Every structure is written in C-alpha cells, then in structure tokens.
Amino acid sequence: MVFDRYSPVMSVREILAELPNLTVAELAAVEAKLRELHRPSECDRPAWGQALLEVAGVAEDLPDDYAVNHDHYLHGAPKR
User: Fold this and answer.
1) What is the pLDDT along the chain (80 residues), one digit of tens a residue?
2) CA distance 45 to 59
3) Do 27 and 40 contact (CB within 8 A), yes or no?
4) DSSP-derived secondary structure for 51-73
C-alpha cells in the first residue's frame, strides 16, 4: 500500500486487510475510536417528547376519526 500526499485515504477493503497486522494495543485503540464514533451524542438528538411535539398537529386533511381508526386507514382493518 502506497500513501502519498495526494491519496492519504484507505478503502474499506484495505483497512480490513491491515487489521490482522495491528498489535493488541492498536486494535484496542481502533475499537475505542469505533465505539466513540458509533455512539450518538445525546446533544445531537431531541428527547422523544420534544421530537413528538415537533410533529404534533402538522398533518393536514386527515379524517376526524383518524386517531381511532388509523388501522383502517393504514391497513384496511374494519372501522371501530
């Protein structure tokens, strides 16, 4: 694998091929970084209640009984 100043990026295939060459400490560092990157930040997403409030009341032109008969309108179940 050749790195120059114009192509410092490895493909996924290249990264996976290099993993067996890493030491235990290097693998632990990779794992820690992956966990850090994979964990969504609590600050980046709204709480459930806030998310629901953001969409509550925004649907238009729904039938008056939509809340009670949503299974009918979505899936064709008998109306209540």
Assistant:
1) 555 555 567 888 988 999 999 999 999 999 999 988 887 666 667 788 887 888 887 788 888 898 898 888 889 999 98
2) 22
3) no
4) HHHHHTT---S--TTTTTSHHHH
C-alpha distances out from residue 8 to 11, 40, 43, Å: 10, 27, 31
Q: What is the model's pTM?
A: 0.40
SS3 8: coil
Q: What three-state secondary structure class fits 24?
A: helix
User: For residue 54, what are its two tokens?
Assistant: 């953001």
